[in-house]
Amino acid sequence: MQALTDNALMLKVKTGDLDKMGLLYERHKKRLFGFFYNMNQNASLSEDLVQNVFVRMLKYKHTFTGEGSFAAWMFRTARNVNYDHFRKNKNSRFQEDVSSLQYRGNEMELEEEIDKKESVVQLNLALQRLPEDKREVLLLSKFRELKFSEIGEILGCSEGAAKVKAHRALKELRSVFLQLENKEL
Amino acid sequence: MKEEVFENKAIAYLSGRMEDKEKQEFEVFLKDNGAFQIQFEQLQNSWAQLDSLEVPEPSERMDTSFYSMLYEEQDKAKKKVGFASQIRDFMVSLWRPQFAYGLALLAIGLAIGFFLRAPIDNPVQQSPEVVDSETETVREQLVLTLLEQPSANKRLQGINEANKIQKVDETVIRALLQTLNSDPNVNVRLAAIESLTNYLDNPIVREGLVQSIVSQESPIVQVTLANLMVALQEKKSIEPFKKLIRSKSLDSSVKKKLESSIQQII
């Protein structure tokens, strides 16, 4: 039996079959969590934001028409959730970054991690230093198995514009990363 | 190739979202354009570097929070449905009385129509048995009431009413026998005898009449009973009559009548 598409599931949710939201959650929870984690480097916060995305999708389920892709709609919601969170918590951003380090430190000693994966840390730092919109388009195009047409839908631009944005974000990431490496030297 | 077109194709190539034919064309372009080739390789390294970014597994807390939220939403939805059904029930309840009233009015209309039509085609009559039964019950109560009245006229009226009863109740018979034995008025007692003669088939009546012979002091009542016993050829009455004859207070003419009657019965 062919599994229901995301769109079909969401349309069922829209008509009141809320159980289907559980299936969508299982399909997309890691993608969403990864997106948020790459955006803010805070696992605990990312979990909360994933939750907020599904709460918001339930709240605004009536706005899902099924014409675009569910993934695009979901990531557009995720993007709004992320913006809303940091707009409300501008002052706590630094603390969240610190708590993120603590979280990771619990899994692996931070020092050891820096030794072993210095370049990864630098890459993370470079990513965090990117403007949010560039970090966002880069992560969406790299990890989230989205077509550029869908990314364009999420960002509210054309497919071509989304590609250009992604390209320029990758270019800037490289630039920031190299700057960090030069500082280390 | 314009810079923007290159940016477009490069990211499409890197993200693996390019058709094979287009891919080959782009690779040929890069070979022929060294500057773009270098730029592309740098981007390719950074793109590949992104794969090293680690993402931890979300904790079970995330699942727990999500499903708690989902169940809560489902409960809310059910309550909303409950509320909606309450409204629907309310609307139905508004409609139901109207429907019921409608049905009731229809039924009343049909009933009125039926009864108005009934005398023409199918006269509704209570069966004579029912009517008689009801009338006789009322009449029996009337008899019993009238026989207890102090007025002799009322008691006579009661006896007359008793005469109209087809099948008297035992209570009425005993009331009539009581009147025969103890009523102070001779006319009433005579009327009681006359009334009781309507029920001579009843053994209680015959027995009662026989027994009342000795208790009668009025000559006219004694003679009436004697005539009745002769007519009935009631042999049980001989002994009470003989007893009465032996009584010193008995009128002589009545005594002769009784002796004659005994002879006729024997």
Strand-residue proportion of chain B: under 5%
The largest inter-chain interface, given as chain pair and residues per side, is:
A-B, 46 and 35 residues
Assembly state here? heterodimer
DSSP strand count of chain A: 0
From the alpha-carbon coordinates, what is the Rg of chain A to the nearest angstrom?
Answer: 18 Å
Number of strands of chain B: 0
Helix-strand pattern of chain B: HHHHHHHHHHHH
Low-confidence stretches of chain B: none
Q: So how many helices of chain A? A: 10
End-to-end separation of chain B: 158 Å
Per CATH, which architecture of the largest domain in chain A?
Answer: Orthogonal Bundle
| Classification by helices and strands of chain A | mainly alpha
Number of helices of chain B: 12
CATH class category of the largest domain in chain A? Mainly Alpha
Taking the sheet with the most strands of chain B, its summary is: none
Main sheet record of chain A: none
Q: What would the principal axes of the Cα set say about the shape of chain B? A: rod-shaped
